[in-house]
Write a structure and sequence with these properties.
By secondary structure, the protein is mainly α. It has 2 domains: 105 residues, Orthogonal Bundle (DNA polymerase, domain 1), CATH 1.10.150; 136 residues, hpI Integrase, Chain A (Orthogonal Bundle), CATH 1.10.443. Helix content is 41%, strand content 5%. The protein has 10 helices and 3 strands; from the N terminus they run αααααααβββααα. The chain has a 3-stranded antiparallel beta sheet. Strand 2 and strand 3 form a beta hairpin. Helix 2 crosses helix 4, helix 5 runs antiparallel to helix 6 and helix 6 crosses helix 10. The longest helix has 21 residues. It is elongated, with a radius of gyration of 23 Å.
Length: 303
């Protein structure tokens, strides 16, 4: 008697059959970014990518999804069948700046490594690929203290508060755009505690100076506790608008080069080190690069 095929929706996530590897079903993220166009993908690869993207920021998910889509479109085969030659041919199709190509390759390598660690892929072909060494442009993205001061001088209202917090707290722009007034708590000494959810959904609290706290509360102007600090049309301010705000403020301050919100974060860390702050230095208003999401290095007073 012939057996009725099983419903794919009821199958475990990883069923390796003749490969002799058994794997139990793994929960999959409930949200997943669907691009407008996507190559044909096997159910196993689709669910693997879902799990790989789970927990990452929306910006990171979009970038990783684009890289995965592009890779699958070029190799035109399941990830489990991809060879080093396939990966090398894919890299030959990439154009543009070295940094952009390196980012795509790193994204695909991360996906293959994730699948290999789970046991879905029998080999991690990305490990054998030669890395593209993109030129280090970090120095170009660091603003001087004079430039930061001019940006604060040439901004007001919401724009001033956004620029000040990006720099004084070393925040990522995504952290500030999700910030609500109930995430800010005033301290008795005039400072304020700002709690955000950062990369990898890690929560952290930053203590800002009395000056920054006063600027925040003057800007609030009676907004309810649950309101966004930087409101947009349908929630928090859109990231693209935050970018435009920072770029406009930089132009008004006479800064010729293009400036992004992340420049403020780099400036925060660099100026802390320039002023001699170290991991062993714990000033009155603790402000560590560990707290602001960097791996280690130093602490300083928040502005």
């Amino acid at each position: 008697m012939s057996r009725r095929p099983a419903d794919p929706a009821n199958l475990p996530l990883f069923d390796f059959g003749s490969a002799g590897c058994a794997a139990r079903a793994v929960p999959v993220a409930s949200h997943f970014i669907e691009p407008t166009a996507r190559p044909k993908v096997t159910e196993l690869d689709r669910r693997l990518i879902e799990m790989w993207l789970h927990g990452k920021s929306i910006h990171t998910q979009r970038a990783y999804q684009r890289a995965a889509d592009r890779f699958l479109e070029v190799v035109a085969k399941p990830l489990s069948n991809v060879t080093l030659g396939d990966f090398q041919r894919f890299t030959d199709t990439l154009t543009g700046k070295a940094s952009s190509r390196a980012q795509v390759i790193a994204s695909v390598t991360a996906l293959l490594s994730f699948g290999w660690r789970l046991g879905v892929l029998r080999a991690n072909v990305g490990l054998a690929l030669s890395r593209i060494d993109a030129p280090d442009r970090l120095a170009d993205r660091i603003l001087s203290e004079t430039e930061i001061a001019r940006m604060l001088e040439y901004s007001n209202g919401r724009d001033h508060v956004l620029v000040r917090l990006l720099y004084a707290g070393g925040f990522r722009v995504s952290e500030l755009l999700g910030l609500r007034w109930n995430n800010i708590v005033a301290a008795t000494d005039g400072t304020a505690y700002v709690s955000v959810v950062g990369k990898g959904r890690k929560a952290r609290t930053i203590r800002v100076s009395p000056v920054t706290a006063a600027v925040l509360y003057n800007y609030r102007f009676g907004a309810p506790q649950g309101a966004y600090v930087f409101p947009g049309r349908t929630g928090g301010l859109d990231p693209s608008q935050a970018w435009r705000i920072v770029q406009d403020v930089a132009r008004r301050a006479g800064i010729a080069r293009s400036v992004s919100p992340h420049f403020m974060r780099h400036a925060h860390a660099t100026h802390a080190i320039d002023r001699g702050a170290t991991i062993y230095n714990r000033p009155r208003y603790p402000r560590s690069l560990v707290d602001c999401g960097y791996g280690s290095i130093c602490s300083r007073q928040a502005g």
